[in-house]
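User: Probable ATP-binding protein YheS. Structure?
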Amino acid sequence: MIRLQNLTLQRGPQRLLEGAELTLHAGQKVGLIGANGAGKSSLFALLRGELGPDAGDCLLPANWRIAHMRQEVDNLERLAVDYVLDGDQHLRQVQRDLAAAEAGHDGTAIARLHIELDSADGYTADARARKLLAGLGFTSEQMDRRVGDFSGGWRMRLNLAQALMCPSELLLLDEPTNHLDLDAILWLEDWLKGYPGTLLLISHDRDFLDSVVDNIAHLEQQKLTLYRGGYSAFERTRAERLAQQQQAFEKQQAQRAHMEKYIARFKAQATKARQAQSRIKALERLEELAPAHVDSPFDFSFRESDKVSSPLLDLSEGRLGYGDKAVLQQVKLQLVPGARIGLLGPNGAGKSTLIKTLSGDLDPLGGRLARGENLAIGYFAQHQLDALDAKASPLLHLQRIAPGEREQTLRDFLGGFDFRGDRCDEAATNFSGGEKARLALALIAWQKPNLLLLDEPTNHLDLEMRLALTMALQDFAGAVLVVSHDRHLLKSTTDEFLLVADGRVQDFDGDLDDYARWLVDFRARQAPVASAAVNPDKTDKRAQRQAAAALRQQLAPHKKEADKLEKDLGKVHEQLAAIEERLGDSALYEAARKDELRDLLAEQARLKGREAELEEAWLVALETLEELQRQLEAAD
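Assistant: Predicted structure:
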């Protein structure tokens, strides 16, 4: 197990932890969350042995192997697949020793090292590395390219694959989803669910945390608090603790009043119906979640456009791509005020191509693209972060697009994005990726857009800023077209999905769970083609047996999870039955027992919420099991 006892950790003048206590058991999967600068990455460095405690103890089993996702790339000349294989250092050492033994014609050593190579799964290592790379979105051709040929985001994917390749008892992942698309995130979730060791994960993706971890360690006020369950359970539990603070209720009630006023005003208007429905969904969740975010430093909205056109954009018979190469054909898309659209599709299918064309960054190769007379686009993409003036402050950036506005008005607006005091006047060259993203969003929000085109807007944003962006998008009166790997953002701000795949853009009749199943089928269709491209001779009986064995290996953790969920659900049913029996006692409703009745009703409400969560998770687990069993029957 991992034990932190009365731990104090300091970096320079800043004390990150003081008297912290934490115990993690082998096999636990834990999400580590906390404000930026609270000390999450420093805690990882402590566990890796790169830092020592200033007081107290950090205890880990001496024989544990630790794998972590590095943040730098130090060998640009290695082939991608070899770079990933380097993650298994023991395997690499055996291979080097074997090469030396063979060069020296040492038969005894060669025999011994071949046994070691087999025990280290060395004969399947290349195939396992390629499988990791394929899951993270690399094509067969890319796997044999130099690391230096890839952009920064793809190099981070290589670092992630290298960490997953390393055999370990403890896996430390710091923001592994930052440079992944939704397809790769869904694949990574499945991989981590099957990981047998202890996982400690830093992430700002709440759905990813909910899917992967079974505990949340919250770093706040120099202490570590362990919560059972995923991020949503943490949010509810923390909200219950903070709900006793009056300021939490004041903020909550103000948000409720604003939403209820909006719903009452616009629910009956067809042009505003979608926004009203989104607001109703948000209102249902607000009561239990608002107190958990009472201390959020973010509070902003997109300024309302003065004029609007309908439609805002109308694309017909669109042929979209680069140069002479068409990526998408026969695209028909009309965007009207109030539209809330999420773009889904495999990596490289053309989602960014579509957004770039609509924004004007790319000209259509064919077809007709008509823009409304009063169209005002707010376009967010990662390359725009690099286009910020590194020498200019947030205030100067905003003054350039609003030269006639009072400085205090601009400072107040930037404060909603947590640029306050001296931070308003600091040059952007010192900003982190998250701060640059917030500044880019602030500039868009100021300019009164009536169409938002958002390409991965949550990259580098922390949980609080993601929530603030979600609320601002729900409050936005214009149209939204968004590509995001953040499923909570998609579920909370969109009403319909378009699927970009196979050179087409089509309506997707389903939700994100349906899309996850569609991806499984899509990958299955692509797999035979990819395998044949690598080596047609591998489609033999041995490969089929290996595929069946791999499926059986995948089946075991899913069955274990389904059984555990069913068992937990049974326990909740028993607890609810006991509560309902007690509620049937008429004496319970006497005035003297009102506190007991209140507590019992609260416990009943909590258990019903838990029952719904477990039922949903159990059904998903059963569906996954059935799908794997069908694939296993086909492989056999």
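The chain has four domains: 2-225, 243-293, 313-508, 541-635. Residues 529-540 have pLDDT under 50 and may be disordered.
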